[in-house]
Hints:
Blueprint: H1 2-63, H2 70-90, H3 96-115, H4 121-145, H5 157-186, H6 191-216, H7 223-247, H8 257-319
Amino acid sequence: xxxxxxxxxxxxxxxxxxxxxxxxxxxxxxxxxxxxxxxxxxxxxxxxxxxxxxxxxxxxxxxxxxxxxxxxxxxxxxxxxxxxxxxxxxxxxxxxxxxxxxxxxxxxxxxxxxxxxxxxxxxxxxxxxxxxxxxxxxxxxxxxxxxxxxxxxxxxxxxxxxxxxxxxxxxxxxxxxxxxxxxxxxxxxxxxxxxxxxxxxxxxxxxxxxxxxxxxxxxxxxxxxxxxxxxxxxxxxxxxxxxxxxxxxxxxxxxxxxxxxxxxxxxxxxxxxxxxxxxxxxxxxxxxxxxxxxxxxxxxxxxxxxxxxxxxxxxxxxxx
Length: 320
């Protein structure tokens, strides 16, 4: 009789502990799922950012009199619409705040899409910059809403680098592409253009320095990612130097609008490649954490069932 009571107490203890562990595990699993959703949504926002930046640059060239990008502008608009559709479908009822912000961003885009050929080059640039600011805000808020800043299975510095520092660096470079290609299309920089080029040269350098400092704060550095940034640092220094020599002089630029646009796009592509690789590190880590948590939950559930079965048997024996 005493032996049965001891077994009963032991099984009851195991069952209670298993219940607590199961509930805690389910909460952790839910967080990993939400964070993975956040990474996937952020990927669409990143693609939206990249294409809207391209649209800004191409429209700047077009409005300065170079119509060579007209066909590409039309194709780019289709891509942007697809990004909005993918985000609208992906954001569930659990992301109502982000969905509302996305709707506001899309409204801004629809206005630009319908009116941009009637804008001056300066007005087009201004409105695109306002739209991109809204996209960057959406990206950051999405990261917060999907708990990417909370419990981590990855180094938290990645969050700062991927969803804040790299987009800021990309926007500084994107602005430089738009302004530089516009200057090349018009044939000579204005005084305002020169001020903008000088400011953007500083912004690109400082933004990328912030990225490198964030990378240095990562405890376990990834060799491939480090190599990406070493190469990108060299490319950006060369790009900034060329941009200053082309546009901070009184002579007409020697580079064509298309050539400068392509040069800047190459640097942006390299930066977004680093972004995507960093993103993949986080996604792979989250996938592994989710798989591990599911296995742990399976074991805990098995223990819960076994202890519950033995507990029921012992209660039956004691009552018999």
